[in-house]
Every structure is written in C-alpha cells, then in structure tokens.
Amino acid sequence: MKKSVTQETNTRTFFSVPKEADGEPLSQCVRRAVDDYFSHLNGHDAEGLYTLVLREIEKPLLESVMEQTRGNQSRAAQVLGMSRSTLRKKLHTYSID
C-alpha cells in the first residue's frame, strides 16, 4: 500500500528541483516569467495579472496531473487537494478530456 505524503512534503519534493539537476524551483520559474511579462509591457499598465497567471499555470497543471494519474479523476483530485467535482469543473473549463 502506498504511503500518503503531506502537501508540504509534496511541495518540497516536487517543486524544489535541486540546482545540480539543472533545474530551478517552480516559484523561481514563475517569478522569472512574471518579471519578463512586466519587462515587455513597454510602459503600459498591467491589468488582470492574477487571473492571467492562474490561467497560464492551471491548464498545464491539470493536464500533467491527469496524464500522471492516467485519467483517474479521483486520484487526480486527491493529488491536487480538491474535490472531484471541482476538478471536473476545471477540466470542463479548459476542455481537458
């Protein structure tokens, strides 16, 4: 039987890629992308950035988790820490089968 790990352990393990693995933590990737976004505004005001970032991150996150769980929505919901009905709504929103 598989052992459950806490969300904190999941976050440390899966999102903090060690430097020697030629990666960078997810938070740094997001920070770099947001900084890049601001640098390309050319003096224009940013609007709706929070929603934009969530949309940009949420779809690939859902796709990846669905792939890793081989389409098992119950397991995917558990991995994501949300209810199955919430997952189903999000999958529908992004047209993910």
Automatic annotation (TrEMBL):
Which parts pass through the membrane? none
Give the domain of life: Bacteria
- Report domain DNA binding HTH positions: 54-93
Q: What UniProt keywords are attached to this protein's entry?
A: DNA-binding
Which GO terms label this protein's molecular function in UniProt? sequence-specific DNA binding
Which Gene3D superfamilies has this protein been placed in?
A: Homeodomain-like
Q: Which InterPro entries match?
A: Fis_DNA-bd, Homeodomain-like_sf, HTH_Fis, Trans_regulatory_Fis
Please give the biological process terms from Gene Ontology that the record holds. Answer: regulation of DNA-templated transcription
- The answer, when asked if Zinc is one of the entry's keywords, is no
Pfam families documented for this protein: HTH_8
Keyword Lipid metabolism among UniProt keywords: no
Entry's family note: Belongs to the transcriptional regulatory Fis family.
Query: What protein name applies here?
Result: Putative Fis-like DNA-binding protein
User: From which organism does this entry originate?
Assistant: Solemya elarraichensis gill symbiont
